[in-house]
């Protein structure tokens, strides 16, 4: 079965790194690699909550890339419950959907899963409804994802993400097909949702 995905090549321009009185200052345009790949200062759970669709991803492992290409759609949803914070990841494969519900621990600019060694960091983005998320395993960057509340982002937003991947020495992003329907939402309290802590490495 053929799945339509596109590799995005950036035309985004980088400014030369120059001295500044404020090392965290973001110039309107263009941005340096240092600006583009900096983590957020602090995660706001209220900003995270709600569903976002996967728009594009850059993956360093060819095996993970092939698995990524088999997905017709993917989305994430953060939920803050009484005793824990959860992330629900939903993957669409043809006529079937897979739901993975994992407990996470928020830490500064990112979060960690309770049952593996993955570290997740949320990076700067100029896109107001997007999340740029990097997955690292023992200090090795594995994956960089762009999520949005929209199925497609603007050209300039996609170019920015592509440049972020380039700055991190990652391959050009592969774009999801926005015409494919997302799987229905499923709450983290739904007993039918699968718990996927033991398979994070492959499914993240």
TrEMBL record:
Its predominant location is secreted
Gene Ontology cellular-component terms for this entry are: extracellular region
Q: Which InterPro entries does this chain map to?
A: ApoM, Calycin
- Give compartment(s): Secreted
Q: Where is this region: Disordered?
A: 167-204
- Write out the entry's keywords from A to Z: Glycoprotein, Secreted, Signal
What's the protein here called? Apolipoprotein M
